[in-house]
Amino acid sequence: ALTRQLYKHQGGSNTGTSNWIANQNARREQEADRIFRERQLAQGRIETEMQEFEMKATNKRNTREQARVERDRAMEEAIIRAQSEKKSAAEARSQEERLATELERIKLDKIRDEKMRQQIRETSYELRELESKLRAGYVQKERTAQMAEKEALKFDSCLEDAEIARRMRTETDKAEQDRRQREIIRQQEMIRYKQELERQLEEQELNKQKAYEEFLREKLVIDEIVRKIYEEDQKYVVLEIDLVFFSKLY
Length: 250
What we know:
The protein is an all-alpha fold. 97% of the residues lie in helices and 0% in strands. The protein has a domain at 1-89.
């Protein structure tokens, strides 16, 4: 086809042929670029799908692994719990067996002891007499203990009364001592008040004396001034009399 096109365009100019070839080359390059881009896009989609597939596969593996770990852990816990329950049940059974054995032993010992006591009571008059005496002694001991307890309570009551009386005397003595102390304080305050009053009276008397002395000093000054004024006045009077006399004389 290219050859036919070349022959077809032989009659044209060389410039037209060159342009046609350039256009063909450009089309081929564009087509090659388009194919390359499509391949890249396809490759990208394939890689994306592969990554998503790997991610999903990884998530599934992780989920399965986590589920397996959870199952193993639950199984271990169940085994441990079963072993613990089995051990607890065994210990409980063992304890129940020991308790039953101990109760049975106590019961047998009690029966044996009771039989022995019954046999001794039935076959030994002396022991019965001794038992009677022991019981009487025990009763007497209990009675003596009760009497002693009563005496102790009575003694405690007396001690309590004595303690109450002692406290009352102590409180009375303390009250009397407080009263005396208050009386002493009151008398001391009265003495201080009297002394303060006497001091104030003496101070007032001293102030009066000072005021009187000041009055006398001022009076002396005034009297001296009056005397001087009087003497001056007398001089003027004598002078006036002399003037009148001499005026009449001449």
